[in-house]
Design a protein that fits this description.
The structure holds 2 protein chains of 2 kinds. By secondary structure, chain A is of the alpha+beta class. Chain A is built from 4 helices and 11 strands. Chain A is globular, with a radius of gyration of 16 Å. The termini of chain A are far apart.
Amino acid sequence: MSTNGIDADNDLRTAKMSSTADYVTMIVDNQLFGVPVLEVHDVFVPSKLAHVPMAPPEVAGVLNLRGRIVTAIDLRLRLGYAPRDPGVQAMAVVIEYHGEPYSLLVDAVGEVLSLEETSFERNPSNLDPKIRDVSEGIFRLDEKLMVVLQLDKVIQLLNGAMAA
Amino acid sequence: MDDLLSEFLTETNESLDVVDVELVRFEKDPTDKAVLDNIFRLVHTVKGTCGFLGLPRLESVAHASENVLGKFRDGELKVSTEAVSLILKSIDAIKTILAELEANECEPEGNDKELIDRLNEIASGKAAAVAAPAKVEEKKPAKGKKAPVKEDASNTFADGERKIEPVLGRDLLPGEVSMEDLEAAFNAAPGPDEDTSSATVAKSVPAVEETLGEHDDHVEDHEPAARVNAKTAKSKSDGANKNSDTSIANQSVRVTVDLLEDLMTMVSELVLTRNQLMQIVRDQDDSKFKVPLQRLNLVTTELQEGVMKTRMQPIGNAWQKLPRIVRDLSHELGKKIELKMIGAETELDRQVLELIKDPLTHMIRNSADHGLEKPDKRLASGKNELGTIKLNAYHEGGHVIIQISDDGAGLNIDRIKQKAISSGLATEAELEEMSDLQIGNFIFKAGFSTAEQITSVSGRGVGMDVVRTNIEKIGGTVDVRSTAGKGSVFTVKIPLTLAIVSALIVESYGERFAIPQISVIELVRASQNSEHKIEQLKSSPVLRLRDQLLPLVYLNDVLRMNRKAPIISDDAANQNEMMTGQAAKDDFVVVTQVGAFRFGIVVERVFDTEEIVVKPVAPILRHISVFSGNTILGDGSVIMILDPNGIANMYGNVAVDQEETKVEVAAVDGKDQKVSLLIFRAGDNTPKAVPLSLVARLEELDCSCLERSNGRDVIQYRGQLMPLVRVADNYPLKTEGRQQMLVFADETRTMGLAVDEIVDIVEDVLKIELTSETAGLVGTAVIAGHATEVIDVSHYLVVAFPDWFEESRKTRMKAARRILLIDDSPFFRNMLAPVLGTAGYKVTAVENAEQALALRDQGLLFDAIVSDIEMPGISGFELASMIKADDRWGDTPIVAISSHGTEDDFERGRAVGFSDYVVKMDRGALLRSLTETLSVYGEAV
């Protein structure tokens, strides 16, 4: 994955614009997703994920992160992508919601991008509903489009679905 | 908030709680001077401190009630209910103001003139009484301090006058303030640590003076007190306390709950780390860490226990408000209620304590309102006018059991039924099929109240369901047993602590889980060729455990784990092996108890028990009821903690029903009992049934094993020849394939009954609609909606062993005579009850003498008693003597049944009052004997 182009491009824009925000980028099935950098507590390689029977399918399990029990949500399943092939190592991005730690399982974690607001726009109307539910909007990068995730929605909707 | 103010609020609230309790005690025994002294002191302290802090409204209320109390103490006023009520009211008013104060840090607007006026009225002659100088001669409060100087203060305490002020060494002058008042003010003031300058003290004294002055208490001479600087005053009180309450208070330190919580969390983490270290060292044979680790282990355990102890509080703390509540209720409801509290010293975790406070209060209210009857009604039903609510707490195996019992009317099952129907919780048909116990448990359903009138106390349709939810939230259970006319007993079972539990680690389907040790009764290893073998009844797995069938659930079924494989798995190969090898391998059965229900959880492996720190699961997983939390094990992996409650609820009906049937058999009337029936087919298409409890095993044998000997079909079964009988003579046995059979067993003999197919196991009322003359059939009953032939096992036993019963069935009785059957063996109970039932008797079966005597106490009458001789506890001989010695059942004939039939036994039996003595197996003789006995006695009575 080469992001050099983005970076260079980004530096250029930062110079021009002041209103930027930093995002941690994540890749799920070749699609780029972004989460505000301040929301991310940790990024690590998950091991020993304990499966939770009867949990919603999106919940991949629970794991121990330095003495804290973190609930792992598989973004692939959460966003309606095909499950990861067995044996492929996922990456975990730790976030917090209402004081509870959650980790989002993604295919890979990219670097932190400073993006300016001018390249941001609302969700296109034909966006897949599964993604629209959790997307704040889209950043137009040069080579790719990045979906900004609304973390509360990622977790909340899971809750709502269960309550119903 | 101001430190001073918050300290004041805490202390005052505590004092007021004590006052509540003490007042109720006082009302009961107005002569108890010590109690009154204590109340007076507390109220007085509150008043004093309020004045000092500039809280006029609070102070005036406290002052007015203090006046009344003072009159009580001086004997000028007789203690009356109204007066006490009024004082309680003023305490409430103080509490309300305090609550406001806590919220807004200032006194609420308004005044309590009305209340104060009434208090003053009671204090008779209002202003005069208020200003009475006598009251300043404060009796020495129990809290009072001995001065280290000169005077031996204990004298002061000992003499009744208590007029000598120790500091002054002389009598107090009228209007003079005693040392205690100043002490109280000092105590409320910032302590010497914060400010030792005498300037503060000097400043505070005028404040006190001013306050007291307002109430005609003239501080004429505060010099001696003022001279004492804060430090000495403090040390005096430290050194010289007599009263045990205060000395304990002085030895204890107030710390915030948060600090304790933090400590607890840290200790929990320490325990985890310790476990982790232990795990590592365990794998190394001789590590030099072993010894220090041993020590660490020990210290950690002690530390853990110590910290746990800091969180432990006597349950009495949660009960403090109850006497007051009951007192108020008894006035409000016009009932006479006595509250007995047993086991107030039982300790439990304060977190748990907090959580059960409200449910307990509610249950007490409930007992007072719904449970106890009005005095006239009680008298009419021959009870003491004074109703009793008993609160009993004790420890039992890692749990605290709290029982709330009342001697009231018991649950009104009919009304609960109506209510259940009207609120759509159950249909009439469903209710028909339920036991009283199940119906009783409807009161825990949301929106259920049977109080006919909505009182301010209860009947608002919220309540017991909330109680149950709250108790279940902390891993507890609640259930109710009720006897009409005798009262109800609510039993609450809660864990001692929530933080650290000992758990059994098990594995199913390649995943590990923790089962809290408290709900585990035993572990049974089950394999195909051992004694404990998991058997299938249709699709329901069961295990024969001692004398009972234990319903089983496979953990992987419960967790629906055969559908979805974990996404990330360290040992995928292992998983596959699990999938294929599941049936053939040995299984472990974790015998679990939830409430009164027992069931087995089948797992594949069992590891150690570990102390685990329970952590709540993430909110998005909280809806999964089979988990109560999760934890990190010693090896760092996260596992889920199973909630046996949740599992029982999923598979509950099986387990619940079975257990309840057992209870029911033991309980009261013999009619309409539900029994588990095994439904099968044999010979024709008509379903046939037999009480499940009679069936020892279900077997399936290869037909090649069938042999014939002496004109009978036999098979070699467990080293014995077992006769195999058929349902009817013309029903052919299979010649090839496998033959299914029901095995009936007595102590030494077994018999197989060949059947075509096991259909089902159902719970139903066994009510024979059509009796049958056909040999081998008791009759036809409607079971699960089908006409079903109920087979007569005894007939087949005779076919198999002609000597099993020598006589066949005899004539039937005309009128339904009531027979009480006492036998400790379920086999005989279950066999004899239908036999007697079919012979036209109405049978009530109980399993021991105690239960029989309990029925006597309930006033039930029987025409005859059939009792076993060899029983645990009270033997048949003893029971007979006891029955004969009492008028109630003295005239009821008793027939003994026993497996031993020696001449000596017969003699002994007659001697203690048995009318007849029959050998257990001799059914004919028993029926004959009953006919004869009843005809003799029938005439006589």
